[in-house]
Every structure is written in structure tokens, then in C-alpha cells.
Amino acid sequence: MRVVIAEDSVLLRVGVQRLLADEGIETVAAVENGDDLLDAVTEHKPDLCVVDVRMPPTFTDEGLRAAIECRRRHPGLPVLVLSQYVEERYAVELLAGGASGVGYLLKERVADVKEFVDAVRRVADGGTSIDHEVITQLMVRSKKSPVDKLTPREREVLGLMAQGLSNTAIAGTLVVSDGAVEKHVGNIFAKLGLEPSNSEHRRVRAVLAYLDS
Q: Which residues form the Response regulatory domain (predicted)?
């Protein structure tokens, strides 16, 4: 796997690069601003971009906007946002703009190396890895959301789906049967107006559907 890292902090940039190297993942470019990220993606055509939200010159949302532009120029490019913040406006645009190969993790909530590397591989493979806290914050801030139709248990299942868990993993987490989870997932699809499907992209669309409103 070939990765481009965009992070303004030298220590974090080098740290992530070494962590990935230990897992056999090559960093083809490590940059500190959005413009350099766009150039690096065009030059190297990586399998994944790991991007911080706040980078020079204003340290507001340059990284996230650059990630969105990368996906616009290179449709389907997997992007994993690794940030201290949930930037609502552009987070919605990033997550709603494509159902595959997208992740948004909060730095302080990445519990261990394995969890992070699993997220990197999942997103690079076209899956999703969205921090439950990110989903929660966006749900709270969204005044009118299709997710409002869901029961508390269905919301819980949706949150675990957002983290990339399979039905079996969700069942283990909630200590319920696989059949019960399948029923909840079916209800989520129905209430969000999505026809049931075995497609992983359909699962991601269920997670992100409320962002389209």
C-alpha cells in the first residue's frame, strides 16, 4: 500500500510515517499543507491519503478542503481524516460526497496502533471508518435528519456500522444474535429509504444518508 500523509506537525507526520512503515505500508509523500497534498496525490497516485484537518496558512479547515478537492479530482481516492476536531461543514461534504473509501477519526480517541492500522487498511480497501463521536456530533447538529426515524437501538447499530463493524462484530458488541442485528440493519435501510442489499457500499450509504438532507 502507498500512502500520502498531510500533517503540519513534524512530530506527528514522522510518527505516523514510522508507524505505517512498521506495518509494511509505504509513505510516498509526507507534506504539511493542502496545496502540497494536491500536488503529491497527482504525482504519486497513492492508495490512501491520511489528512489532518487544520493546516497552514490559517489552521482552520485547509486539510479537509484539500481532501475534498483530491476526491473531486481523483474520484474514489480513499481518504482518512485524522484530526482533533469535527469540522461540521466540510465533514458533511466529505462524508456525503462518496460512499466508499472514507474515514474520519479523532486523534484523541484512537486507542491503539492496531485500531489505527485496521482503519487505514479498511479505508484503503474502499470501506469506512468513522469515529462514533463524529457521527454523534453531526447527528446532534443536524436539525432535520432521516436518522430521527430510527429507534435508539437502531441508532446504536448505525453507529457501529459507521465504525466499519460487520453484523457479527456488532452482535458481539451488543451481546445479541446475528439475526437481531440483521433485522435492525434491515429496518435502518427501510427507514432511510435504501433498499436492503449485501453491498458494503449500501451499508456506508445507510451511515451517511442523513448527511445528504
A: 2-122
201: which residues sit within 8 A by CB, 6+ positions away?
A: 99, 100, 126
φ and ψ at residue 133, rounded to 5 degrees:
-65, -35
Closest CA to 127 of 200, 30, 26: 200
pLDDT in tens, 59-78: 878 888 899 899 989 988 99
Answer whether 49's CB lies under 8 Å from 80's CB.
yes
- Structure confidence at residue 132 as a pLDDT band (50, 70, 90): confident
In three-state form (DSSP H/G/I as H, E/B as E, the rest C), the secondary structure along the chain is CEEEEECCCHHHHHHHHHHHHHCCCEEEEEECCHHHHHHHHHHHCCCEEEECCCCCCCCCCHHHHHHHHHHHHCCCCCEEEEECCCCHHHHHHHHHCCCCCEEEEEHHHCCCHHHHHHHHHHHHCCCEEECHHHHHHHHHHCCCCHHHHCCHHHHHHHHHHHCCCCHHHHHHHHCCCHHHHHHHHHHHHHHCCCCCCCCHHHHHHHHHHHHHC
Share of the chain above pLDDT 70, in %: 84
Do residues 171 and 178 make contact, with C-beta atoms less than 8 angstroms apart?
Answer: yes
Phi (first) and psi of residue 23, to 5 degrees: -100, 10
- The pTM of this model reads 0.68
Q: How many residues does the chain have?
A: 213
Distance CA 133, CA 115 (A): 16
